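FORM 7B - TANDEM STRUCTURE REPORT

SECTION 1: FIRST PROTEIN
SEQUENCE AND TOKENS:
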Amino acid sequence: MTKKRLRALSPRYNKKRWRKFLSQDVDGTLHIEGVSVNALTKKYGSPIYIFVEDEIRSKLRTFKAAFDYPMFQPQYACKCNSNLEVLKIAREEGFEFDASSVGEIILGLLADFEPHQITFTNLYKTEQDIYFASEVGVKAITIDSFEELNKVINVAEKRRTIIPIMLRVNPMIQDGKFTTRNQKYGIPYKFVSKAIKKVAKHENVRMRGFHYHGSYAYNPRSYYLALSKIMNLVKIAKKHEIVVDMLDFGGGFPPEAPKAYRPGKYFDAEEFAPGFIKTFNKLLEKNDIQKPTLIFEPGKSMVATAGIGIMKVVSIKDLGKKYAAVTDASTYSMFPDVLVSKCSYDLLPATKMDQRRTQKYEIVGSTCDCIDIIDKNEMLPWMEENDLMAVMDCGAYSYVMASNFNNLKRPPIIMISEDGSTKLVRRRDRYSDLFGPELDVLKFADPYELKKYYNLTRVNLEKVWAGNENDARANNGEKKKKSNKNKLEQK
């Protein structure tokens, strides 16, 4: 794929956050890192996800550099985008790994994170999960409840080993519309001292620190409120001769995509970090607490703006007051956050970037479900069959929550580099991926039956049509020969 002579996006479609990697050509076709969306869909099909590598690296580097604290260690929140190539990039940029399940621990290990770089944080862990994490040797298991604490103590005693933990705390804070008082995460603040006492009695459990979930912060103040409460808990732990060497304040940082993620005002790490570190250091000094490792777990703010969904218009329907543009994508298989979190993405007319927004559209997916609506009111140029659209800022919570509703295949993921080179980092689903778990146990089908149907779906129609045309030409040729022969015989 070669780069063409390009220019900046038309002001009607441009956003500051996209300027580094989006451009357009003289025909109004969108280019990502200098590569035409037409070329990308020709090579990889439609629909597809495109992840912009340099955008991910830039966000990770900026976040890490913003915190001027010698023992700062960010962790990447795997849950929002668990693609192995993304995990590798996070590791290369100096991040550790926040896992929310045994499956994510395994993903982290496959992405070459060391066990001591992984924390295991969720609301439900079986004794089997706890055994696995401790056997692997993770940095810490985050305890979400008293019930979970009992499980860890039980596993530690039976294994006759020491299991490192953090206590996850619900600080029960409120700041305007933002509150943790109704959150399911962590031990409610007034009960945490009881948990600390319990941990202090068991030699097989080593408490390394405290964890605060974060979650969709409306503004930076919530982190300061949580910091104040958690420092009080550090003092209580100190009275029980527990040395806290880790404090984790979670994620929840809003990404630079206000239309997609509406709660709160965007603030970046460079804006937030200096004030937080100053307050953090003051509280440590005031309470005579040795400097612990400071952890934050950004996720969606690192990858959201790096994701672009490319989809094709398959038909336009006149609904009277507006038009429906039917696409080959869907909310289920590509943009589930539209349904789950009521996200609203910016859409670009990827093959008509030089044209004005003149028509109102309802952008709908291809599934047989009436709620499969990607956007209800989007102004775009006049769209036609085979036009391409770009769904922006969909790099977080998109493919990880996507489903195979209607037994549709989820799209592939392509990583694109600054030099325009592309890499397939997740292939398109196969029907064997969809049906395998049932065929394995029910034994309905012959082993070769699925392969027969699968091969039929991969027939190259251009060759078939070309073959039909050749056959038609050959038949016409035979007819002409016979006709000429008959004429000669008659003469």
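SECTION 2: SECOND PROTEIN
SEQUENCE AND TOKENS:
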Amino acid sequence: MTIEAIMRALSDSTRLRIMRLIGTMELAVGELAHVLGQSQPRVSRHVAILADSGLAERRREGSWVFLRQSVAAGEQVSRAVARLLAAAEEEDESFARTCADDRRHLAAIREAREASAAEFFARHAGEWDRLRALLAPAEAVEAALLATLGGDGLGELLDIGTGTGRIAELLEPASSHVTGLDKSPEMLRLARARLQNLPTGRVELIQGDFAALPFAAQSFDTVVFHQVLHYAHQPDYALAEAARVCREGGRIAIVDLAAHDREDLRRTHAHARLGFDDAQIEAMLGRQGFVAEPGATVDGGELAVKVWTGRRIAPAVPQIGRKSAGTRSSATRAATR
């Protein structure tokens, strides 16, 4: 990208407003149109110019397109643009009033996201309550995960099957950056509602499949599967991908059901696996270049929950393949988050 392209991109008041808004949070193009009071096609044209300049980055999530800040133009340039816009808001009264109005509209977007999430939870409350009744309390499971991973130093963290974003929220303070991945756009919208008040740039949400992770090798220091692996028909494929993106010396954490005999969960909640025992997990971790570490068991429900961890020591493991690992309903996935 050239400085001329960047300066041309900043030569329009609407694009200046867009840059100020996405400096606060990632926004869908439709949400931007609502805040700006402009048609979606017109906003899309402005978005294209910003993306072409390298100042912003588009990301498709189902039928939605989201816009966020980008460092394609260079980290120093991106920071300089952010400082320039902040200074302009302080010194230009007209621009400051416009930005204040935009932020008021942005507050309505936040509220709409939260209302949509609340409606989704209410719609599926009965199903979640039946599943949660079988499990150890979520608070105890989260405490065991934190204790097993340690209180800090998680580095770049990947939360696979992020669901409602609860685990991303829980581990964010101990991480340098969190990436939450989920296959379902609806679940990502729930996660976005939960995480939207965190500082911009701390958490990134990505649509993708845990059997074919859309990340380069050795991208993360910590990889977490929270109540996800029992949906995989071939867990080794998911763990092979986790190993590929985990740096040497990095860690993996698997939170899942201990082995059980509740066959009805295959039918009612699309579970592909009836939990796991220690030997299964240790063998899978070993095959993918992890050394198993001491874990934890959380009782308190009909089905015990286990926390397994491992440390990546082997050279990069080639990806086994890109096969489907199965699907599950959005409501069921929310129940374990």
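SECTION 3: OBSERVATIONS ON SECOND PROTEIN
Confidence is low (pLDDT under 50) at residues 322-336.
Residues 93-123 form the longest helix (31 residues).

SECTION 4: SIGNATURE
Preparer initials: ____
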